[in-house]
Amino acid sequence: MAQEWRNLPKEFLNRLETIVPTDKLHAILDAYTVMRPTTFRVNTLKTTVYKLLHLLTKQHIVFEPSSVSSLAFILKGDKRQLLDLPAYTEGLFYIQSLSSMLPVLALDPQQNDKILDIAAAPGSKTTQMAAIMNNTGQIVANDNSRIRGYKLEANLCTQGVTNTTTRISAGQTLWQDYPEYFDKALVDVPCSMEGTFTTTNPKTYEHWSLKGIKELVQRQKWLLRSAISATKPGGTIVYSTCTLEPIENEQNIDWILKKEKNNIELVDKPIAIYPSERMEGFFVAKLRKVSSNIPSILRVS
C-alpha cells in the first residue's frame, strides 16, 4: 500500500520533498494512501452529546471521542451507517473532518459576536460557529458561487441555524459593504487542497497544478485583506487552508503583515498539521487587528 503514493502528481511529490521535514516525509506519504475514518460533530442546536451518543449506541454504531473537541467523535465503521440515520437528515450531527473544526476553535466565537465567514460554502464551519454561539449574534456567510450557496443554505436549514445571513458575492469587495463591522472574521480560503489528497480517491488530486496554485494565491490574498478591512480594530481574523503549500500559507501571512504594516499582528505561531491516518493536512493562522486600515470616511461610527 505504501507505494500507492506514487500515483500522486509527480510535480507535487517533488515539491513535497522540499516543503516537509525529511523525517516526516514517509509518514505523510503513507497517510495519503489510507482512507481516513469518518468524523462527526454533535449539533448542540438540536440535541446534546448525551442524547446523540445514546441514540447512536442504541443503533449499534461504534465510535470514540476525539482530542480535538468534546463535541467531535470518530466513527469506527462505514460512513453509510451515519448517512442512513434519521438523525442525519434531521441535523442532529454534522459530518466534518477533525482538522476542519480547528479554524473555528481558533477563532473562538462568543455569544452575540458579529462574525464574517467570507468563503463559507458548504457551511461546515458556519454551522459550527452558529452552534457555539447558540444562534445568538450575527454571522454573514458569503460565497461567490450561487450553486454552492444553495448547498450552504440547505445545510444551515438542516442544522437549525437562525443567526446567519447568506450572501452571494465576490468576497474581495465585501468589506465595502461592511467596513470594520465585524468582531471576528473567518477566512477559510479556496486552496489546492493538498492536505486532503488520498490515493483511494484520485478525484482529490486530479486537478492539482502549479498554475492553479498561483491563481489561487491571488484570490487568497485579497479575500484575507477584505476580511481584515471588514473587521473592527481589536477584532480577530483566522486564516486557514487545507493545503501544505507555503505560498498559500506562510507566505500569504507574511504578505499581509507587510501589506498592512502595523494595522495587524500575528497571534501565536501558526498551526501546521500534516496529513495523518486520522487528520487531514491543515494550516491555521490567527491575526489581531490593531488599528483601522480603511479611510476614516468609510468607518462605521
Give an overview of the whole structure.
With 301 residues, this protein is of the alpha/beta class. It folds into two domains: 1-35 and 98-291, Rossmann fold (3-Layer(aba) Sandwich), CATH 3.40.50; 37-96, Sun protein, domain 3 (Alpha-Beta Plaits, 2-Layer Sandwich). 33% of the residues lie in helices and 22% in strands. The chain is globular, with a radius of gyration of 19 Å. The chain starts with 9 loop residues before the first helix and ends in a 12-residue tail after the last strand.
Identify the CATH architecture of the largest domain: 3-Layer(aba) Sandwich
The major beta sheet can be summarized as: 7 strands, mixed
**Amino- and carboxy-terminal Cα gap:** 60 Å
Strand proportion: 15-25%
What is the SS-derived class? alpha/beta
Q: Report the mean per-residue pLDDT as an integer.
A: 95
List low-pLDDT spans. none
Helical coverage, percent range: 25-40%
